[in-house]
Amino acid sequence: MLVKENLGPADFERLVDEENATASRLIFTDQSIFELEQEKLFTKAWLYIGHETEIPDEGDYVTRQMATDPVILSRGAHGKIHVLLNSCSHRGTLLCTSDVGSTKGFVCAYHGWVFGLDGSLKATADDMDLYAGKVDFKNLDLKTAARVDTYAGLIFATWDDGAPDLADYLGDARWYLDLFHNRTPEGMEVLGAPHRWVVNTNWKLGAMNFGADGPHAVKVHGPITAATFQVPPTVFRDALVESPAVSMGNGHNGIVTQVPDSLKDQIPPYFGFNPDLMEVYEKHLNPQQNELNRHLIAGVTTMFPNFSSVQGASTFEMDKMPVNFLAIRVWQPVSATQTEIWNWFLVEKEASDEWKQASMLAGVRTFTAGGTFDQDDAEAWVGIAKGIEGNIARQGDVNFQMALAYRDRTIPGFPGPGKVYPSNYGEVTEFDILLEWQKYMKA
Fold first, then answer.
1. Pick among 3.40.50.410, 1.10.760.10, 3.30.70.1350, 3.90.380.10: CATH of 187-442
2. Assuming Cys at both sites, which of 178, 325, 351, 416 could form a disulfide with 363, CB separation 3.0 to 4.6 Å?
3. pTM exceeds cut of 0.85
4. What are phi and psi of 364, to 5 degrees?
């Protein structure tokens, strides 16, 4: 194991080799590196906290994580959103133990200190006069995130006062987020509480996979894709090889897998989308965005460092048309070799209750702990963790060298922003996540 105190910028320069498109296996196994990530990355970047529809009214709250720190996401006066460290400023007790609720304030179960929805200290257990005026209680409010902001209903926060504005941090990624999260006037809503499960692997593997790993899809998901997406493996592979992968800047990456040109006359536009909302999509998004959605098979993205989205159409009844689901998730770091996945499903607010139910069911059957696709992925990720944990095995590298063939092959005139590569198989975008990781770790 490396010693945290001895790791410096030069070490992280060596751990990710940009020129050769490889990275040390240590970054997925070493606990010292994991602990430095908490300091150098997760206290600096914008992190996904929750969705506005989870806390619609004043007093609503949910408890979440910002990496290894527990937080409360609350809706305060005048609709303001707050992100509070879930740790009493008196003795550090976990202040709120419920996953979700509605309240006028938070009361510590240990000594009864009371805090407002904005984290301000309202009362101690005893008369404040007992402190004889020797304590400045203004300094005992709950610690709050330095900045909180939203985009398309998605709530992000950062502990860093010096972080760029969220709009600048997301940058070109907003254009692609709109494809999934901002395609109707009323936007999306969350369908229920997050599903949570633990996978014995490093958090970066999931983030990279969604950022996105095209080559694994046919091997790992080919049979289930044929069964649930009604797409044969050969067609699926052609779609992946011929569809764009996008580097959106600031470590945000993804793929927009398209129906192959040879099949566009056989597969109807907006395959899996809600047919009642097609005209709404056409009016709300711009023509270039609609063109991508019109022939979309699947869209998968990662907003750096650990927030991902996946959309696809699936069916488990062969006499019924596939239905789109939209899953979002956070790869919560637990240790160097353990990740807790938090997973939600979203759907357009304008959709009928029947469609919402069908979309939720499509998602649960595919991208959850018991879902077909997640079981495929988790088995592979755990296999990586086991394969690189030994003394000899961890001395090697992980390989992304298909990027060498694709990193200079961008698509000219692509309708969306960012650097766009001609294939989901290029490995450029998932390796970009490690390059962004390296920037934070070297800082």
1. 3.90.380.10
2. 325
3. yes
4. -60, -35
